Amino acid sequence: LFHNSLLEYGTRRFYRGRIKAAIFDWGGTVVDCGVCAPILTYVELFREEGVEITEDEARAPMGSKSSVHIAKVLEKEAVAKRWRQAKGGADPTEADVERMVQKFIPQVLSSLQKYSNVIDGVAETVATLRKPPFNLKIGSTTGYPQHVLKILLNASSTQGFTPDASICLSEVPEAKPSPFMLWRCATSLAVFPIEAILKVDDSVNGIHEGLLAGCWTVGIARTSSYVGLTEQQLEEVDSVELTRRMNRAYKHLTNSGAHYVIDTIRDLPLVINDINRRLISGEKP
After folding, report:
1. Among 7, 93, 226, 256, which residue's beta carbon has the most beta carbons within 10 A?
2. pLDDT of residue 114
3. What fold does the segment set 21-33+117-281 form as a domain?
């Protein structure tokens, strides 16, 4: 049996290059400021079952695929109690979850017609990242299925955002926080090593996706589901309430383990410059 004696001395290969690609989430990161389309759909789905839930209750599991999201909402004791009251004492079942999942996609498609605008600053920032000195490839991942992704791509392309590669849930074995979508996107972009990739997301599950994949992660706070406001509402909300919501977003994203948390996507070039500095000095995610 051949034994490589060099390994006894801890021979390792370190990547000391620069970030080569940024992979973006969609809702709350690129489009749909505040992640309104799926949240309003979940609220309506429960209402159709005779159960009222708040937007905060609907937002809690954001970043999960729809079946997991609905199941997690139903696990909340307050929601489960309202469900039993509406259903004559019956607990929610897997069949209930599946029925709601089947209704989710058609309804969220209707909501996306209203909430598919590219968030302010995305097109300009991505254009900057594609040019020197960054020269990044741009990817995206989403928990939506393929036909919904196509709608998002068509809408965003007319607004200045066209990723080089896009991967959706139906192309991989598991959704976020599993890293399969990110790994497949990296393959489609032909970018390696994983340390040369940055995942940009507004949800805890999306940050965990990046961490499990082994890449750098950045949380976007202001446009996230944890703030939960459209761009117009962000302009109108009073400063005290906005500060409360921003603090909540920073807490969730920081506690998720994100390497960086920033207000908006416009802050991304500064983050990439700092990551490049750390990579050149020998640091890894």
Report:
1. 226
2. 85
3. Rossmann fold (3.40.50)
Measure the N-to-C terminal CA separation of the chain; round to a whole number of Å: 35
CA gap 44, 25 in Å, rounded: 24
Q: Which helix H or strand E contains 21, and what residues bound it?
A: strand 21-24
Q: Which residues of 130-152 are buried (b: 16+ CB within 10 A; e: fewer)?
A: eeeebebbbbbbbbbeeebbeeb
Residues 41-73 pLDDT 10s = 889 989 999 999 988 888 876 666 788 889 989
**Domain ranges (residues) in the chain:** 21-33+117-281, 38-113
- Asked if the domains 21-33+117-281 and 38-113 are classified in one and the same CATH topology, the answer is no
CA of 50: how far to CAs of 47, 97, 103, 223, in Å? 5, 14, 15, 30
E-assigned strand segments in 130-210: 137-142, 165-168, 197-201
Alpha carbon separation from 64 to 38, 118, 172, 175, 186 (Å, rounded): 11, 22, 14, 7, 21
Query: What distance separates the 2 farthest-apart alpha carbons in the chain?
Result: 71
pTM of the model: 0.88
170-225 per-position pLDDT tens digit: 899 988 899 999 999 999 999 999 999 999 999 999 999 999 999 999 999 999 99
What class is the 38-113 domain?
Answer: mainly alpha
